[in-house]
Amino acid sequence: MTKTRDTKPHIGIFGRRNNGKSSFINAMTGQDVAIVSEVAGTTTDPVKKSIEIEGLGPVIMIDTAGIDDTGELGKKRIAKSKETLKIIDLAILLITHNTFDEIEKEWITDFCKQDVPFLIIHNKSDEQEIGLPLLEVIRDKYDVPVVSFSARFPDKQDDVIKAIREQMPESAYSKKPLVGDLISYGDVVLLITPIDIEAPEGRMILPQVQVIRDVLDNDGIVAVCKEREADAYIRRMNPKPALVITDSQVFPKADAAVPKEIPLTSFSIVLARQKGDFDHYMQGTPYISKLKDGDKVLILESCTHHVSCDDIGRVKIPRWLSNFTGKKLHYEVVAGLNVIPGDIKEYAMVIQCGSCMITRKQLIGRLKPAIDAGIPVSNYGMAIAYVHGIYNRAIAPFTREGKADYL
Length: 407
Fold this sequence. Notes:
The protein is an alpha/beta fold and 407 residues long. It has three domains: 10-172, 3-Layer(aba) Sandwich (Rossmann fold); 180-270, 3-Layer(aba) Sandwich (Rossmann fold); 276-387, Rossmann fold, CATH 3.40.50. The protein has 15 helices and 14 strands. The chain has helices at residues 21-29, 71-83, 102-113, 132-142, 157-167, 206-217, 227-236, 251-257, 267-275, 278-284, 312-325, 360-372, 380-387, 391-395, 400-406, and strands spanning 10-15, 47-53, 57-63, 90-96, 118-123, 146-148, 188-192, 221-225, 243-246, 264-266, 296-300, 330-334, 349-352, 377-379. It starts with 9 loop residues before the first strand and ends with a helix.
């Protein structure tokens, strides 16, 4: 059986100012990890807290500003809170004193638009219990757990944990294997890993480490070499590797070195299949051939990093795209999970990195505006393979159609 690895679920805490969001987090963790104050609006920007909840395990809780914040600054705080909907696996909506009106309903609508499951906590129940009429209205209309809770006297913590378990999607706890479902017991997977200016000194980059762990978890054997040694090494290997994974930057060299009968792909494409919307990537990548003069291409990096003179996302991919298309294209690069500038419809295409530093939920939320707007999306590895003429081979390990095309 293919094995999977645990991940940390992201839980967003939402509610009006002074509904006790920070107190709720402290009560659930048994420690003062969030600032508590009688002054409304103490929490301003969303704050992530990595915590361990007994009976639930490690999670990331996100403490947000009040959903009823006011003024120009309040609008900005609310906008930042809404941005967290793209990265969370579960939302907890805190209400108090039987107050549940249009503000709460609007946020629930936003949860649904972002496909975020949610539950409702009636906090401060020591001051006032939730009324039966409101309880029935919420359950009838939304069919979600409603838990009466007091952060002062958290004797119903088990009820909250049970509700979280019920509503948390399974995908938040486990993830697809990277390559474990492609290999059998004892198979050798060869990793081609160039050591260049972008390689961190003294260690491997995260996607390489993740693939190594996944192969080992699924009872495979890992061999690692640089691109210069790949050709000679493969000739000596017996048995031959069941799969070769290369850094996308040396795709052409790897394609020449690896015999056609041996499956070949890249770290970025492996990550794209695990975390991204792979079907949309496959549909969107060929749009590269349709780019026109003046088109804007949005390049999304999942993390912030030191930019080298030959950076893959900021230098190499724009150069390869421009050379392949022969068009004068404009490029915008956005790092981390920063807000995309302007209207997403201004861009002709979006190209996303492998996203080794973010969760699948975060990546899906990142790409959703483009996909909803009908804008083609691709991935670093798939785009690089396409412009070098080896796209079908690069996706072949994951699609029967691709394998038929390149053999």
